[in-house]
Design a protein that fits this description.
It is a single chain. The protein is mostly helical. The chain folds into 2 domains: 50 residues, no CATH class; 95 residues, no CATH class. Helix 3 packs antiparallel against helix 4. It starts with a helix and ends with a helix.
């Protein structure tokens, strides 16, 4: 795994424009200042490494642990990047399904950034429209009917999107 990373970095820095390599696509520190910090971090760390060697290995100097975790370069965890990617994929998946109208995508982007729980009351006329979802006796979500129901719901109210229709169906369909 470490050699794989080393090979990836070697191939990235051997490119004419290293910013275009897959490793650096999501990094916000890809600037001239960020690159200069990256290229000089080892040279700047050598005196500190020599001090640690004198303290811990040779034990010639009393141990000083202050500043050992100092970083000149931004540190990112793989799990952070993966969770960001998962969030983007989830939003993109919802957006591709919700391309019935432009306002639907705007609502999805707003919902993706907000984390507050929204309680909505379904009106009687909306319930009548939503009953069309339950005409088929299938246990799976009726995607084609849902698109038509969504169009009808958006004619009466702009609060509806595909995710809300799906949630309504999940909460109200009868399981066998």
């Amino acid at each position: 795994m470490l050699w794989q990373l080393a090979n990836e970095l070697l191939s990235a820095f051997s490119l004419e424009d290293p910013k275009m390599h897959d490793i650096f696509l999501n990094a916000s520190e890809i600037t001239s200042i960020g690159f200069s910090k990256l290229f000089t971090c080892y040279d700047n760390s050598i005196p500190r490494l020599i001090d640690i060697q004198k303290q811990d290995v040779y034990q010639k100097v009393s141990r000083n642990t202050i500043g050992r975790r100092k970083h000149d370069v931004g540190v990112h965890k793989l799990s952070e990047n993966q969770s960001k990617e998962m969030r983007k994929q989830r939003i993109n998946r919802n957006l591709t399904v919700d391309q019935v109208e432009d306002n639907t995508t705007e609502q999805q982007e707003g919902l993706a950034t907000e984390h507050k729980r929204q309680y909505r009351i379904t009106k009687d006329n909306e319930k009548e429209i939503l009953e069309n979802l339950f005409k088929s006796k299938s246990d799976s979500f009726p995607q084609d009917e849902a698109i038509e129901v969504l169009r009808q719901l958006q004619d009466s109210s702009k609060d509806w999107n595909m995710q809300r229709v799906r949630n309504y169906w999940n909460n109200h369909h009868k399981r066998k």
